[in-house]
Specification:
The protein is an alpha+beta fold and 277 residues long. The chain folds into 2 domains: 116 residues, 2-Layer Sandwich (GTP Cyclohydrolase I, domain 2); 115 residues, Alpha-Beta Plaits (2-Layer Sandwich), CATH 3.30.70. 33% of the residues lie in helices and 27% in strands. It is built from 8 helices and 11 strands. Strands 5, 6, 7, 8 and 9 form a 5-stranded antiparallel beta sheet that branches. Strands 1-2-3-4 form a 4-stranded antiparallel beta sheet. It has a two-stranded antiparallel ribbon with strand order 10-11. β10 and β11 form a beta hairpin. α7 packs antiparallel against α8. Belongs to the DHNA family. GO terms for molecular function: 2-amino-4-hydroxy-6-hydroxymethyldihydropteridine diphosphokinase activity; ATP binding; dihydroneopterin aldolase activity; kinase activity. It comes from Velocimicrobium porci. One of its GO terms (biological process) is folic acid biosynthetic process.
């Protein structure tokens, strides 16, 4: 991936654990690598298609001067988030923060912390069969998009499907969403849980009716299995109400465990549902 690098930018500011560090201040050195496609700028020779590194350097300096943290880890964490939000075309940032005057009473060159932060692509399934289903969908999408660390980038058609699981109930409205997020999988789960609570989610029995249901289907190509979260969603390959809308917005997305596309999974599921002669 293409990148622009600002190397060892010197900033005098007030970060540290000890009181004298936050009062007197000291020198820090920042290296920032911005990863994004610079082809447009290279072809057009137009700064509007790239990162203005002079402006970015000034922003880093101003951020570090106007914010105070005890830990280097906190400085780079908050700075990385601020840079990705300020320059949304940047896909990833790699930051190294050096502290050459670290008060450890031993000879050294620098102490440094390095972090890499990026936008992640996450796919969600959304469903509801209580209340005003479409209004609940639109409100859930709005709340996702209003989250500072998340933006909704694709929305499938809303489809009507029959209930799954054998519990008598109204038909479902289902769909799929693509989001770009700076949140971890666990933080995405926390976010969608808060949205479900905001919409007064009701789900009294397993496979039963609900006002809103949001599930993580994919998060980049990550594979994880924790007590509260499994990615990819373990039942997705069996659910046409997940695969049909997902195939609209991510037909070529490859299941990281099964090694086939969403379109292929959907076609295989449809074939399995065709009764034999």
């Amino acid at each position: 991936m293409d990148k622009i690098t600002i190397k060892d930018l010197e900033v005098f500011c007030h970060h540290g654990v000890f009181p004298e560090e936050t009062v007197l201040g000291q020198k820090f050195m920042v290296t920032a690598e911005f990863f994004f496609d610079i082809r447009k700028a290279g072809k057009t020779d137009d700064l509007n298609g790239s990162l203005n590194y002079a402006e970015a350097a000034q922003y880093i300096k101003k951020f570090m001067e106007q914010n105070t943290y005890q830990l280097l880890e906190a400085v780079v964490e908050h700075l990385a988030k601020a840079l990705l939000l300020r320059y949304p075309f940047v896909e990833k940032v790699l930051l190294e923060l050096k502290k050459p005057w670290a008060p450890i009473l031993l000879p050294l060159d620098t102490v440094s912390v390095t972090v890499e932060r990026r936008w992640h692509t996450c796919y969600l399934a959304i469903g509801a069969n209580l209340g005003d289903k479409e209004a609940n969908f639109k409100r859930a999408i709005q709340l996702l998009d209003e989250d500072e660390l998340t933006r909704v980038t694709r929305v499938s058609d809303f489809i009507i499907t029959e209930p799954y699981g054998g519990v008598p109930q109204d038909d479902f409205l289902n769909g799929a969403l693509e989001i770009k997020t700076l949140r971890t999988p666990e933080e995405v789960l926390e976010l969608i849980g808060s949205i479900e609570q905001d919409l007064k989610r009701v789900r009294e029995i397993h496979w039963g009716p609900r006002t809103i249901d949001l599930d993580i289907i994919f998060y980049d190509d990550i594979v994880m299995q924790e007590e509260t979260l499994t990615i990819p969603h373990k039942e997705m390959a069996k659910r046409d109400f997940v695969l049909k809308p997902l195939s609209q917005i991510a037909p070529a997305k490859i299941h990281p465990l099964l090694g086939v596309t969403v379109t292929k999974l959907y076609q295989e599921l449809l074939n399995s549902l065709v009764p034999e002669d």
